[in-house]
Specification:
The chain is mainly alpha-helical and 124 residues long. Helices cover 73% and strands 0% of the residues. The chain contains four helices and no strands. The protein has helices spanning 15-26, 31-60, 65-91, 102-123. Helix 3 (65-91) packs antiparallel against helix 4 (102-123).
């Protein structure tokens, strides 16, 4: 029910607004951003492991042109994901961090899929 005037001239309270204010007042702004920051760090670490395993596979399996091309694509993809994650981690340092933009979300998904596909190409 929106705030409005009663017949006796007094105003009715906006119940949704007071609930939202109570929820915001009780929310600890440090917990969610911290969890998100840690999740980005774990994901970055997993991508670093995938990239290093791709390099190991290239060197261990013998150097052939296909493996070198795949490795040449893995490294910049990993660096792009690292830059994206670093930017997001830095954005999480405020109590009310901005929402992840659709463009950044698509870029993160594209890097993840590219690393998965390039990893599969390494196993051929």
């Amino acid at each position: 029910m929106a705030e409005g005037k009663r017949t006796d001239g007094t105003r009715t309270p906006d119940r949704n607004r007071s609930r939202n204010q109570d929820r915001d007042r009780n929310r600890d702004p440090g917990l969610q951003p911290e969890r998100t920051r840690l999740a980005w760090r774990r994901t970055t670490l997993a991508c670093a492991v995938a990239a290093s395993l791709a390099g190991r596979q290239t060197l261990h399996g013998g150097i052939d042109p296909v493996a070198l091309v795949v490795l040449a694509l893995v490294v910049p993809t990993w660096l792009a994901f690292l830059a994206l994650a670093h930017r997001r981690i830095r954005a999480m340092n405020v109590p009310r961090p901005p929402v992840l933009s659709p463009r950044a979300a698509v870029a993160a998904v594209a890097c993840t899929l590219a690393l998965a596909l390039l990893g599969a190409a390494m196993l051929r």
